[in-house]
């Protein structure tokens, strides 16, 4: 993929990140999971950057919850334990998560068929990497525009690609939440990534969210909310919007602002709020 804004100046940036997950208004459990990982060790932070992960699990009994929790834990641990470059480290981490979830689903009859979407964003210096499986979305907000940076692995998106359904109609299609790829449902997994890291600019914002948000909140509303608020306030506001509109599914949203460096430190990750922060 070619990014039109490549070759821009190198920013010296500060990352302000927040993530929230909410059960919504209709479900008994929260099968979504998410976390921001900011290594306390400055050397690890400099080498591997920060990681934001969102997973949306599915499966009977506690299967969905277990699958999404396993995904965010294993992806986080494996990414930081791997010395490969970021994209390869993410793919390897997703593969390990797939193996673990799939193995457990075979061992425990009550967890048979469990699986989860997963999208992970790694940010280091002036570059971003992503890996994803399923329909958990990453958006980039830049210069007043909002761009979907991943392709939903969903049945309806296949119909859009074939020209059978328009992108507009896909939004309300009955099968919009039928996903074609998930971590854990099969022995093998194909992990999607970008062909090259994305050069990040000061002023950029990233939004990572489950379908519980984007099914009920339009892309432009996500943009306007993220642009005018700090990440922690934006996360709360977006969850409140989805809940006001019925909150039919679990809702998870993470927001990262790339702002000019305020201090003399080379790169700072400031977490205003996160569901879970490790390392
Ligand atoms: Mn969902």
The CATH topology name reads Phosphatase 2c, domain 1
So what's the CATH class? Alpha Beta
Which ligands appear in the coordinates? manganese (II) ion
Integer tally of domains: 1
CATH homologous superfamily assignment: PPM-type phosphatase domain
> So how many helices?
8
* CATH architecture heading: 4-Layer Sandwich
Cα end-to-end separation: 33 Å
Unreliable parts: 1-11
Q: How is the biggest beta sheet arranged?
A: 6 strands, mixed
Written as H for each helix and E for each strand, in order along the chain, the element string is EEHEHHEEEEHHEEEHHHEE
Number of strands: 12
Strand residue percentage: 25-35%
Please state the structural category: alpha+beta
Widest sheet: strand ordering: 7-6-10-11-1-12
What does this structure look like?
- The chain has 279 residues and is α+β, with helices and mostly antiparallel strands.
- The protein has a single domain, classed as Phosphatase 2c, domain 1 (4-Layer Sandwich).
- 31% of the residues lie in helices and 28% in strands.
- The chain has eight helices and twelve strands.
- Strands 7-6-10-11-1-12 form a six-stranded mixed β-sheet.
- The protein is globular.
- The site of manganese (II) ion has 6 residues, from helix 6.
Topology, element by element:
Layout: E1 13-22, E2 32-37, H1 42-48, E3 50-58, H2 63-81, H3 86-107, E4 115-124, E5 127-133, E6 137-142, E7 145-148, H4 155-161, H5 167-170, E8 192-193, E9 198-199, E10 205-209, H6 211-214, H7 219-227, H8 231-244, E11 251-260, E12 268-273
Helix pairs in contact: 2-3, 7-8
